[in-house]
Prior knowledge:
Blueprint: H1 12-21, E1 28-33, E2 39-43, E3 46-53, E4 58-68, E5 74-79, E6 83-89, E7 114-118, H2 122-143, H3 150-167, H4 173-184
Helix pairs in contact: 3-4
Amino acid sequence: MADTAWQKGLHPKAVEAVEQTLAPDEEVRLVIHGASKQAIIATDSRALVYKKGFMAGASFGAELTSWAYRNVLGVQIHTGMMSGAVVLQAPGQSGTRTSSWKGDDADPYKAPNAIPLNRPFDGARRRVARLGQIIDEAHRREQAPVAASPAQESVADELRKLADLRAEGVLTDQEFADLKAKLLA
Length: 185
């Protein structure tokens, strides 16, 4: 990978896991660092949630969960007095508490759609706002009407030209039919 600035501050196993899962043309655009080496890595097409270790429910291991932006409704930051969380909102994903005191699967250390935060929160707030923009951009791209491809337009244009030439008497009906068959083949 040419640009390695995104790797700064990530656990080496996180870097390795992300690099193994990236598509050849996929680009990392943003990283949100959480507590206990957890992170959300935003690419141009999806968000990856990296969790490592016992606190994340991955004793002696790690997990990397992929969230395609088409399945993500938004992103939130929850902040408390000392701790917080960044939560990806998706259909079927329950909310995540800011506090991790109870230690169940809804705490941000273990939830697959969240990472825990420690103070200060300013950098995380800016990155969460940027991730929200990235998600919105992805949704707009998916909703944009699909234009006809240049090849489709050129075939249609060629057929119109042939029809005009036939109407002007330059082409016979048989020549028009032969040329039309070639274009459509």
